[in-house]
Amino acid sequence: MNLFFALSIASVVLFLVVVPVLRRKQAEKNADAQWKLGEQASALGLRTQGANVRTGEMQFAGESEGVTWSANIEAPVHQSNSRNKSQSTRLTYPGLTSAPGTFILAVAFPPGVKVPEMPSMNDGGFLASIAERAGEALLDVYVEGYFGAEHRALVNVAGAARSPAPEGFWLLSTDPALAARLLDTEGQALLSALRLAEVKEGTALAKAGFGVLISPSGFKVGCQVALTDPARLKFIADKAARLVAHAAGRA
After folding, report:
1. Model confidence pLDDT, tens digit, residues 218-242
2. 3-state SS, one letter per residue, for the chain
3. Do residues 225 and 73 touch, judged by C-beta distance below 8 A?
4. Is the dihedral of CA 191, 196, 201, 207 positive or negative?
5. Which residues face 110 on adjacent strands?
6. Among 94, 178, 185, 240, whose Cα sits 20 to 30 Å from the Cα of 169?
7. Is the pLDDT of residue 157 over 70?
8. Main-chain phi, psi angles of 190, to 5 degrees
9. Residues 6+ apart with CB under 8 A from 71
10. Residue 108: pLDDT above 90?
11. 24: pLDDT confidence band, cut at 50, 70 and 90?
């Protein structure tokens, strides 16, 4: 009984004294990290619109090449509070849009990976129908994961053209005029430079997984890595901004 009583007292002390102290210290550590993150962003000319180092949800905004952009970052620290989310960064440039009801999608593949051939869907046969449905399902998953579920209804294989694209990209488009501006010689070079941009030491953005979507709501870059370092974020944002400025006729 005495041992049980002693253990009970120890548990109460742990719950009432030690746990609150540990939580307070962690909160102080998080607040300090959040302050430092804001200072780093500010030094680079970025605005912190919301940064929670505890949950890993962050929002930044900035301007590069004369175009404004915003970034939403998901960097879940622990599985218990991540709600099964994976790391991601979504950059949005509202100044470059496609025509109403149209889109341009560029899917980047890692260096050395051959871009798969899309099966023909023009013969109207049973196999073409199956291939189209499978392609649409895969595209829905990709678009939702990289750019958000709100774009699934817009981006479809049916009715889209396989536009010529630089090495390492698979591209669909329903806006020929914008695609022509985006994919001229300079535009392709800028898109390739973005694909090979390093998100961290020795890791290209394409290897981390990224894509570009231009819709009526803006130009978006989605990647499966959390660019929580303001310097890395600005580095990628600047490269994407050069492509946006070019396609918008500002460069």
Report:
1. 999 999 999 989 999 999 999 999 9
2. CHHHHHHHHHHHHHHHHHHHHHHHHHHHHHHHHHHHHHHHHHHCCCEEEEEECCCCEEEEEEEECCEEEEEEEECCCCHHHHCCCCCEEEEEECCCCCCCCCCEEEEECCCCCCCCCCCCCCCCCHHHHHHHHHHHHHHHHHHHHHHCHHHCCCCCCCCCECCCCCCCEEEEECCHHHHHHHCCHHHHHHHHHHHCCEEECCEEHHHHCEEEEEECCEEEEEECCCCCCHHHHHHHHHHHHHHHHHHCCCC
3. no
4. positive
5. none
6. 94
7. yes
8. -70, -40
9. 58, 59, 60, 61, 62, 89, 90, 91, 92, 227, 233, 237
10. yes
11. low
pTM metric for this prediction: 0.79
Residue 41 near residue 230, CB atoms below 8 Å: yes
Across 165-189, b (16+ Cβ under 10 Å) vs e yields: bbebbbbbbbbeebbeebbeeebbe
| Residue whose structure tokens are 């990289």 | 146
pLDDT class of 163 with cuts at 50, 70, 90: confident
Q: Scanning the structure block, which residue is given the tokens 């030094």? A: 43
List, in order, residues 6 or more apart from 228 with CB less than 8 Å away.
Answer: 37, 56, 58, 73, 75
Which residue type does 102 have?
T
Phi-psi bin for 50: left (phi > 0), alpha (psi -120 to 50), beta?
Answer: left
Tokens of 85: 């989310």
d(Cα 97, Cα 103) in Å, to the nearest integer?
9
Amino acid at 58: M
The size of the chain, in residues, is 251
